[in-house]
Design brief:
eight-stranded mixed beta sheet, mainly beta, about 40% strand, 1 helix
Length: about 160
Amino acid sequence: MTRIRVFYEHWQMECCGTPFAVGDEVRWRLVTVDTREERDGYHGAAAWVNRHGGPDRETAGRVLSIDLVHQEYLAHHDPLAVEHPEPEPGTVVLRAAGRALEAVPGGAVLEPVDTCPKWFDPFEEEDRPPRRVPFRVRCAVGVLVTLDVADGTPP
């Protein structure tokens, strides 16, 4: 048997995944992580689960361990932290409501768990309004799974 590390993104699970636990047998379509790609996004995994296309062939394996991946980000925009002058009556004012997020290098924290959640927590904000920009937020971005697969099974 061969052990491989697989990253399962939160949105893939929330959309159409089935939660699993340590010891379960699973069948997933896996895509090999291209070594030329940014490996931080896969948290050291050799492959990632693709629920929307990818290879036709599924890889079967037994789940040996699951780590919930929490990623820290810098939020570069907070409309609540910016003071705006009072507009003239009748003036249309457009204000950005989103926030630009930048992953903090080395900002991933692994939390060992026994089961993969179906739904992941929203952002955990470290600073409450009013706050200075940029400010830090954390969120669960997926799980890192160690799979035991048959020798010679790709990837």
